[in-house]
Amino acid sequence: MKKQSSIYFTLAMILAVSLACNIGGTAPATESGQEPTAAAEQTNPVATTVPSQQAAGIDGPPGPETIDLTNPVLYIVPSAPAFTFEMTSKYIGMDTTGAAKEDSMAVASAEIQTQPEITQRFLSFSGAFETVIIGDQMYIVVQGVPGCRTSLASEIQGPGMLESMFKLQEEITGQAPRVESGIEVNGFMTDKYELSSENFVEVPGELVSAFVYVARDGGFITLYETQGREEKATAPGFDPNQFADITITYNFIPVEDGSLNIAIPAGCDNQAGLAGEFPVMDGATELSTSPGQVSYKIEKPRSEVADFYRAEMPKRGWTLTTEGTLIGISLVFTKDGKDVEVTVASNSDTSSFVAITEK
């Protein structure tokens, strides 16, 4: 039976959807009767406008006056052989003391390539969670939590990481007019197209603005951005009685196939951790390591697992000193004044959970 598993990248997507669903509404007036200007003063750090008279001569002529947002050529996720993706959010408002406050976060990012084998790397919440999938092997590292958790991607129930990624083509439709030309974004010369509420499959509220930037070389969307406003801020640390402006950006960047060089996360390269000293059975799944402990699941009865450690540990210089069956099978081994306990618990008649712990 496939196990349930939290997908950190999906959690990031849920956060992004939550942010996107919150934007909209009418901004309240200030005491002076003027609209706040925080949103209007925002600038996009990745977009640089080229003077319009120069735009036509840079990387070819401008794109079409309108684009069909249902054209699959516009979207590189998930079909491009190799690409990077990044989603960021910016939240601008007032804190509870009345001072201006701004929070920015790299909500999620991904690196995907299909050659020479499928490899994927996902970061979420400013790098707090890192997931790397190489072939069918999955590695998960949580910032501040020692060790590395591993599993087989094929064992995850439900959609995989790539299938769970944000797909812009599922969110927008219709025609979009070109409003600006010759803007450098993500290393590409682009043309800017404006989206209205009619371009969205679902619009949760009044949309302040939305744009896509289409690369002239390749004709794909490399940047999508939306801006909106909450009448009452909902983010932690912001005054809930004041409005807040929200900007969400999605960057899509194709790269040379095979050039991403996605590697096993630091701390996961010696995947068994203590297994250099303590054996891990072939066929282990859900292998997790942390300082002083290794644990995993194995599709074998606990008696067979216990026999494996009774036979293998002495080959590595460990002496069996204590054996018990209070909770599963407990084997305590000693070597050079150090004790370790191997605990084997049954998940079923043919499945066991193994924990090797330094005492």
The domain tally reads 2
Order of helices and strands: HEHEEEEEEEHEEEEEEEHEEEE
Average pLDDT for all residues: 79
Helix content: 10-25%
Could you tell me the number of beta strands? Answer: 19
Report the sheet-strand fraction: 35-45%
Secondary structure tally, helices = 4
Low-confidence stretches: 1-46, 48-57
Query: What is the CA–CA distance across the termini?
Result: 33 Å
Q: What is the makeup of the main sheet?
A: 19 strands, antiparallel
User: Could you say which overall geometry the principal axes of the C-alpha atoms support?
Assistant: elongated
Structural class: mainly beta
| Radius of gyration from CA coordinates | 26 Å
Task: Give a topology summary.
Layout: H1 8-22, E1 47-49, H2 52-55, E2 66-68, E3 82-94, E4 100-113, E5 119-124, E6 129-134, E7 137-142, E8 148-152, H3 161-164, E9 175-185, E10 188-194, E11 209-215, E12 221-230, E13 244-254, E14 285-290, E15 293-298, H4 302-315, E16 319-324, E17 329-335, E18 338-348, E19 351-358
Antiparallel strand pairs: 1-9, 2-9, 3-4, 3-13, 4-5, 5-6, 6-7, 7-8, 8-14, 9-10, 10-11, 11-12, 12-13, 14-15, 15-19, 16-17, 17-18, 18-19
